[in-house]
From TrEMBL:
Residue intervals of the Polymerase/histidinol phosphatase N-terminal domain: 2-66
The protein, known as: Unannotated protein
GO molecular function: 5'-3' DNA exonuclease activity; 5'-3' RNA exonuclease activity
Matches recorded under InterPro entries: PHP_dom, PHP_domain, Pol/His_phosphatase_N, Pol/histidinol_Pase-like
Annotated organism of origin: freshwater metagenome
One Pfam family this sequence matches: PHP
Length: 281
């Protein structure tokens, strides 16, 4: 079982990196990607927790915005964690999250919703990268909504009146940095229409020109028709086809390993990094 897209409490998941690794081992997984949002801060604990036959594919899910304002998430895997340009990009993206959160809270307060920045900080684990899921948790804690999933289907959806875009690299810029850091770039859930505005098929040609390696096809937020279309695009453009859980612990319904990547596609993807950076005992 190969799951290349998961999150820990170093961003918006609920499991520590150690807990995530232990769950992956208990499920008999062969490869797991640790891809917290805009950070590599969970890598060290994940490596320390490694045992058994599990292989780590370390990375990060990078928050991007197209020139048309469409939110895109780019998975960078197997890059050099010490690469200066990569770490600068991740830091700058993280820094843009606080003013964005303040603007979203301000919009909600103007609409009469009883929520504050303090509420969000109370829902934020120590050392975690601030994000909309923590606002969702704060709204749940105050009884305003029932779950994160309800939040992202409504109040926190990209098309919501409360949504605020964030300072972020374009997908093409992110791909360039990932490649210069020696890694591989896979676009995450590009047709997840329930989240708001999405890419269109013609957008992938520009991403391929920038150096895209793969498409996350099998993901619970993409329906069968969307997956079929993405699979066809990947075949036409000779891109790696991946599947993943996008696991967040108890924060979302996604189950670890519910979707996976075939060994053949994983081997094709790993071979395109500039060095063998998988971590195993």
């Amino acid at each position: 079982m190969i799951d290349l897209h998961t999150h820990t409490n170093k961003s918006d998941g609920t499991d520590s990196p150690r807990e995530l690794i232990n769950k992956a081992i208990s499920l008999g997984m062969s490869v797991i990607g640790v891809t917290d949002h805009d950070t590599t801060s969970g890598w060290a604990q994940a490596i320390e927790s490694l045992r058994s036959n599990l292989t780590l594919a370390l990375g990060s899910e990078i928050s991007c915005l197209t020139k048309d304002g469409v939110s895109v998430h780019m998975l960078g895997l197997l890059f050099d964690g010490a690469h200066e340009e990569m770490q600068i990009m991740l830091e700058e993206t993280r820094d843009g999250r606080l003013p964005r959160m303040r603007k979203m809270i301000e919009k909600m307060q103007h609409a009469g919703i009883d929520i504050s920045m303090e509420d969000v900080h109370n829902a934020l684990p120590d050392g975690a990268t601030l994000g909309r899921p923590h606002l969702a948790d704060a709204l749940v804690n105050k009884g305003i909504i029932k779950s994160r999933d309800e939040a992202f289907q409504g109040m926190l959806n990209n098309d919501s009146e409360f949504y605020v875009s964030h300072a972020a690299p374009t997908p093409e810029d992110a791909i360039g940095v990932i490649r210069r850091a020696g890694g591989v770039a896979v676009i995450a859930h590009p047709f997840a229409s329930l989240r708001g505005k999405i890419l269109v098929p013609s957008d992938f040609h520009t991403l391929v020109d920038a150096g895209l390696h793969g498409i996350e096809v099998d993901h619970r937020d993409q329906n069968p028709d969307e997956r079929a279309m993405l699979r066809a695009i990947a075949h036409d453009l000779d891109l790696v086809i991946t599947g993943a859980s996008d696991y967040h612990g108890s924060g979302k319904l996604n189950s670890l390993g519910e979707y996976g990547t075939s060994p053949e596609q994983w081997e094709k993807l790993e071979a395109q990094s500039n060095s063998r950076r998988v971590v195993r005992l």
